[in-house]
Each structure stands twice: as C-alpha cells, then as structure tokens.
Amino acid sequence: MDQLDTKRKDKIGLKSIFMNGIIKENPVLVLLLGTCPTLAVTTSAVNGLGMGVSTMIVLIFSNVFISIFKNIIPSRVRIPAYIVIIAGFVTVVGFVVKAYAPGIDKALGIFLPLIVVNCIILGRAEMFASRMSVLESTFDGAGMGIGFTFALLLIGTTRELLGSGMIFGVAITSTLIEPMGIFLMPPGGFFVFGCMIALVNKIMKNKKITPKQEMGCAGCPSSASCNLLTDQEDLGKN
Amino acid sequence: MNNSKDKYVIIKEYVMPTIVLVLICFVVTFSLVTTYKVTAPIIKATAEKSAEMARDQVLSGSGGFKLIASREQASVIPYEDNQTGDKLENINIKSNIIDIYKANNGIGYVITSVDQGYGGEIKVITGFSKNGLIQNVMLLEQKETPGLGTKAAKKDFTDKFIGQDNVESVDTISGATISSSAVKRAIAAALDQMSSIKEGGL
Amino acid sequence: MKEILIILMSVIIVDNFVLSKFLGICPFLGVSKKLDAAVGMSLAVTFVMIIATAVTYPIYKFLLVKYNLEYLETIVFILVIASLVQLVEIILKKYVPILQRSLGIYLPLITTNCAVLGVTLLNIKDEYTYIHSLVNSLGAGIGFLLAMVLFSGIRQRIEHNNIPLSFKGVPSILIAASIVALSFMGFGGVIEGMFV
Fold it and tell me: Is the distance from CB of B197 to CB of B87 less than 8 angstroms?
C-alpha cells in the first residue's frame, strides 16, 4: 500500500487530485459516501448548496489540520483524534451558519452537526490527509467538497423543480403545471437519488472508467461487512 | 532490564497516546469556547432581528414591541406601562401560547401560539388591535405536506382571519383539513389569550 | 403509558429513522443484503443507541446546561459515542464472546452511523424527558431493524430479476426504498386519533 502511495504521489499532480474529487471519484455519485445528508437536505437547490459548502469548509480545514499534525497524532488514537478535530470545525461552522444564514440553519436542522459523522470527511482524513502533504490535502478537500456540493446541487435542483416548480426559489414551471410534491418528500428523495446513480453508472460504463475502490470505501469502517464493494465489482465485470 | 523496557513500551503504547488525545481535546474545546464568545452575540442579534421582523409583519406601525409574557420565563412577568399606567401583572399565559408582546405605542398586541398539525407543530404569530381584532396572521414554522398541508400557510388562507374576533367563520381547506384545523386552533388559542388580556389580565 | 406507546408508534412507523428521517442510510444500503447481517447490525445499533442516550442525556442536562456549554453538544456526544462503542467492544469480548463474534464487526461502523448521533441530538432537540428519550431510542432502533429486515427480503427477491444494467445494485435498492417509504407515509396522521 505504501509503495502504491509513493508511485501515485509522483504521478498525480495537484490539479488531478482536485479534479478527481469532482468527477472520477465524486464522493456521492461514485463512492456512495455521505448518502444521509444527500437524501435529507436536497429538498431545494439552496439547501443543497448550503450543506455542500458547509461540508466542504469542514472537509478542507480538517484535511489541512490533520495533515499538519499527522506526525504528532499517535496511530493508536488517530480515529478519536480525527473525530475531535472534525467535531471542532463542525461546531464552528455551525456557529457561523447560525449567525449569518439562520434560514439555512433551520432548513438543515440536525444534519449540520451530523456533518461530523459524514463518512467523506473521516474517510478522506484516514486515507489522504494522514499521508499526504498539506497542499495536496487542501486540494483533495476542495475537490471532494466541490464534488459533494455539485452532486447535492444537481439532486436538489431536480427535486425542487419537480417538487415545487422552482429553482432557488424562482418560479419556473410552478404556474404552468401543478408540481409533484412527492419529490420533496422521502420517497422522492430515494427515487431521484437512485435515478442519478443509474445515470452515472451508465455514463461511466460508456467511458469505461472503473471506480477506484480503495480510496473511498476503505476509509469507511464498514468496508469489511459492506456489500456495496462487491456490487461495484460485479458491475465492473459486466 | 526487561522491566524498564516493558515500562517504556507501556508508556509509549498507552500513556503517550492518551495524553496526546486529551491534549487535543483540550485545545479543541478551548478554541470552541473562544469562538463561541465571539459568535454568540451575533447569533442572538440575528435571531432577535428576524423575530422582530415577524412581529412587524403582523402588526405594522407599532414602534417596536415589549415582551410581557413568555412560556419560558414562567407564567407571569410583572409589567407596568410607564405611559398609560396599564398594569398587566396577572397575565396568566395559557397553554399553547409561546409569548405575548405589546406594541410600544399601545396600538395592539402580538401573540405567538402553537398547535399540532399533520407533520408536527405549527407555530402561528397573530397581530391584534387593542380591541382584540385580528390584524394579520403568519405561520412561523410548519412541517406540513408540501402542496397539500402547506396551503394552510399561504396568504389566501391566513388573510381570511383578518378583522375577525373568532375563527368560526373561516372554513378549513379541503384536502388539508388537519393542517388548516391546527392553524385555526392556534389562532383560537391566541384569541382566547387576547380576551383575557382585554379583561385586565386574568 | 399512552405517551410511551405514541412515541414508539411514531418513531417506528410514521417517522421511521431510515425511511422518513434519512438517518442510517449508509449501513442500510451496505449491510441489508443478507438477513442475518441485517438483523445483527440492527441489534447492535439499537443497543448502542439506548446506551448512548442513557449516558449523553444526563451529561447534557447536568453538565452542559449547568455551565452554559450547550454548544459543545456535538463534540461531547460524538466522543461519548466513540468511547462507548470501544468500551462495549471490550466488554463483549471479555464477558460475552458469542455476541462479540456475531455483532463485533458492526461495532466500529456504528460510531460513524448518523442514526446514533442523530437520535441523541434529536432527544435533546425534541425536549423529551429521560424516560421518553430512552423509549425514543428503543423505537428508533426497532424502526431501523424493521427497515433493514424488510429490505433484505426485498433485495433477495429482486436480485434474480431482470434489472437494466445501469440500475443494478444501489439504484434498484433506492427505487425500492422510495416505494416502501411511500407506503410508510400512509401512516402519517394515524397516531393522533389512535390512542384517544
């Protein structure tokens, strides 16, 4: 694993680290991490944007700090240490959102503090920030964060348009056709998300990009008992 | 020789990591406390501003409001109006009422009330004239079904209550019976509270 | 008693943690394929939820509120949960190795399970009493179990169906989940009149 890392370090430039998080290894659509907030807050485009940006800020800062202190944090207590650091940043972002965007705070509800258990952040800390340099970690955090925000915006806009005929609160079709409120509710969330992933699968198959599984899933403590990995492999074989 | 080596291993494997972890906890907690001290006043100001804006929307031209009773601060706040000499010392805050504000220039009152809707609690804010007539109604919080129950939050429903002193004349919305009934009940509670204010507090 | 029944009914069926509140989706998608894994995971989650509530609630009321430190809620709760999980793992290993073998692999995942942190935060936010919080957590776990078991059954059924290639795997489960969530929505508004 370490040999692979050093070889990768030589090949991968900062730009490709950045773009990786947005497209090839989009945390939501490809790695299937952070699904809870994705389903819960995408009832409107602006909520998706708010959540995405908040998560990205936490992700960048925690990546940076963990990368700076990676040699000081003993390996035995690294997971609890990462959690404490991430929780700290989540709380600070919570303060800022409460103070300057209370509407977003109300809309996101408990999902704002739940950013601390977002698998993306802990996963990146474990897999990337704890091994790479500060600069690389910053770009990775930014890339993953933008990828996350992009996915949330995509799903949020779709649900808002179908569910209330508006995008960012601006009426688009609401006066023409009766909007389908179901899309703003849980069933709609599952449905739109499922279709999005199917779409991504189709696009990826056509371009023959195989998802790199080691980066995302291994960071999630469930990888041993998770069968998403085996599903992805089956898909790749076909 | 072995003993001291073992001790060294124990210190390195268990004690050091624990100390570092505790240290990290302290640093993070300290930073949070400091950040909180900075942002708390801003958060409070923002919340107060939006609450004031809501009150203004249901009772305009009041010149500001003063809190005279709130569910949190026990049921009675001794209140004496310096200008008019009104004493509302016996305001008994009824159930379903969250808070009562009086307009600074005495033109009326603003009452926030709640009731159980379909998807959760509905919070309603109502502006009253001094005589207890409804000036305006607004929904502050609701978790009703989008497109159906949320019709009870729209202006064409809430406007029906303007000028009334009871909720009987307003029909519930078909297809949103539970949500609109909840709104009616919340406004009825506010009206009830208003009548006890009119009668001098009890 | 009536209140306890109402809380249980609403959190298990009407406001199901997975299908309505969107908490615990990661394990829901990942572990629901085999029935025994699904049940094992859900039992472990329920167990941790109840203990976490039992510990975090008093910490909040008697420590954080007392010293005006409510904003430290997130960091304190997640630390408590992480340590609890470690502790449970050690205790199980030493005293009930059978359980450790069947539930053990799911325990590390539970730390990052949004449902566990979610239920502890919700108990505070919804202002439940201590007993009601414990009931709520029990119900949340049972609701999670219900969703997981339902799903493993559904997944086993659709596994042999002819699903379009792009939809194979996660997308098909999500569409199935949307239909189940839809059916659960039918329970809304039922609770009000139920125990009157």
Answer: no
Report, as an integer, the average pLDDT of C81-108. Answer: 80
Domain assignment present for B103? yes
pLDDT of the residue at B112: 92
- Residue C103 or C149, more confident: C149
| The pLDDT value given to residue A208 | 57
Structure tokens at A54: 């908040």
Specify whether B18 is located in the same domain as B113: no
Tell which residue, A62, A65, A47, has the closest CA to residue A106: A47
Stretch among A12-21, B4-13, B77-86 having the lowest mean pLDDT: B77-86
Last residue of a domain, one of B28, B49, B70: B49
| Rounded Cα distance, A13 and A135, in Å | 11
Q: Where are the beta strands (DSSP E) in chain A?
A: 166-167, 170-171
Q: Residue B17's domain spans which residues?
A: 1-49
| pLDDT, tens digit (0-9, with 9 covering 90-100), for A69-111 | 888 888 777 888 888 999 999 999 999 998 888 888 888 888 9
CB contact under 8 A, B28 and C71: no
Report in angstroms the alpha-carbon separations of B131 from A46, B57, B79, C141. Answer: 42, 19, 19, 52
Q: Convert the pLDDT of each residue in B102-153 to its tens digit.
A: 888 888 889 999 988 877 788 999 999 888 889 999 998 887 877 778 888 8
ipTM: 0.85
Q: Kindly identify which residue of chain B lies nearest to residue C68, measuring between CA atoms.
A: B33
Q: Is C196 on the interface with B (CB under 8 A)?
A: no
Q: In this structure, are B72 and B105 located in the same domain?
A: yes
Domain count, chain C: 1
Q: Which residues contact C4 (CB under 8 A, 6 or more apart)?
A: C131, C132, C135
Interchain pair A87, B147: CB under 8 A? no
User: Closest Cα of chain C to A74: distance in Å?
Assistant: 17
Minimal Cα–Cα distance from C189 to chain B, Å?
6
What residues of A are in contact with residue B21 (Cβ under 8 Å)?
77, 80-81, 84
pLDDT of residue B84: 56
Residue C148 structural domain: 2-187
| Mean pLDDT computed over every residue of chain A | 79
- Spatial distance between the Cα atoms of A69 and A73, rounded to a whole number of angstroms: 6
Query: Does residue B54 fall inside a structural domain?
Result: no
What residues of A are in contact with residue B31 (Cβ under 8 Å)? 88, 92
| Minimal C-alpha gap between B33 and chain C (Å) | 8
pLDDT of residue A232 exceeding 50, the answer is: no
Number of structural domains (chain B) is 2
Quick check: pTM over 0.95? no
Q: Quick one: B94 and B178 in the same domain? A: yes
Q: Say which amino acid occupies A151.
A: A
